[in-house]
Amino acid sequence: MTAWPSLPDHDPADRVESAIITRLALNWGHRAAVKKPEPDLDELFDREKLDYPNELLPFADHDRFLSLTDDQQNQLRAWAWIAFNKNVMDVEQYVVNPGFDLVAHDGLDTGLGSTFATAVHQAMVDEQYHTLMHLNASAVTRRQRGWAMPNQALPDVQTLRVQRTVTADAPDPRRRAISIFAFMTVAEVSISSYLDLISENDAIQSVNRATVRLHNRDEYCHSSIADEIAGAVYDTLGPDERRHFLDGLVDAMNAFSSNDYSTWHTIVDLMELEGGRAMIDDAEHDTRRSKLVQDFSGIHRLCTKLGVAEKMSFEWT
Ligand SMILES: [Fe+2]
Ligand SMILES: [Fe+2]
Predict the structure, then answer these.
(1) Distance 152 CA to ligand 1 centre (A)
(2) Separation between Cα atoms, residue 298 and residue 185, nearest integer Å
């Protein structure tokens, strides 16, 4: 067998290994964002560009929004970008890394080999770095626009609120761990489509697009890692545990796909925007509004591979 210089020695016990995980663990040093030089964000900042695309504002075609001054519209878009970054950071810190931490220590007794542990430790470093990238991206927006817009003023994001409720309701520590694992799986397999919302839009700030694009490169690999891990873990779960895991996937997809109106309510209150609450309420109750993230094709592929996609109470589109 070839000796891999940067990976641990072969584990003598019969542990689960994977060629995909081995390849990704080996090339991490060449591909990870954390290993690349940092761009000068202030230099890249273009004040003429939008901080956030109108198409992603759930009230973009509302009369009240259209009647606002340019400055008010700009403030709403800047807040939307700050909230987007906070969403990403909260998910990485409190949804993804706790799930990876479980895997890193084989907390579900799957029998994962040492290469899985290496890949997951690398991914956790990536997530920590992504958090810093999004922290910096919000900071440059505040600096360049001259608006305070503190993260602390915003509520916890919806995904995190739902994850906390679901894990708190779990009947025992093992099923609690399975819920944490399910939320991590959905986040890691689906976050790319959330990031694509920004990176594929020409009208918006190049700093924002560059941040998201760089982040997303890592996430394409994380999605393969999470998919492999989910398959390995699922194989070893009992029937009730499998059901619990699949329920967790559905809860997580529902949480991820929704526009977070509590954040919008907070933002219009902070801006003391006359008619703001009514505008957000109208958007929330507008049934033409599609969900923010609809692309769960990665989770659908995973569930098809596991032979359960049709048995889940989720409307795949
Ligand atoms: Fe990330
Ligand atoms: Fe990730």
Answers:
(1) 21
(2) 10
SS3 content of the chain, % helix, strand, coil (to 5): 70, 0, 30
Global pTM exceeds 0.70: yes
Strand partners, 50: 204
Both tokens of 152, joined, read: 């602390």
Cα of 127 from ligand 1 centre, angstroms: 4
Name the burial class of residue 9, with classes exposed (0-12), middle (13-18) and buried (19+) by CB atoms within 10 angstroms of its CB. Answer: exposed
pLDDT band at 194, cuts 50/70/90?
confident
Q: Please give the backbone phi and psi of residue 112, each rounded to the nearest 5 degrees, phi first.
A: -70, 135
Closest CA to 296 of 281, 309, 284, 307: 309
Higher pLDDT, 202 or 48: 48
How far, in Å, is the centroid of ligand 2 from the Cα of 224? 10
- Report the C-alpha gap between 187 and 252 in whole angstroms: 8
From 191, 66, 209, select the one nearest 141 (Cα to Cα): 209
Q: What is the pLDDT of residue 3?
A: 45
3-class state of residue 212 by DSSP = helix
The separation between CA 185 and the C-alpha centre of its own chain, rounded to angstroms, equals: 10
Domains of the chain, CATH where assigned: 70-311 (1.10.620.20)
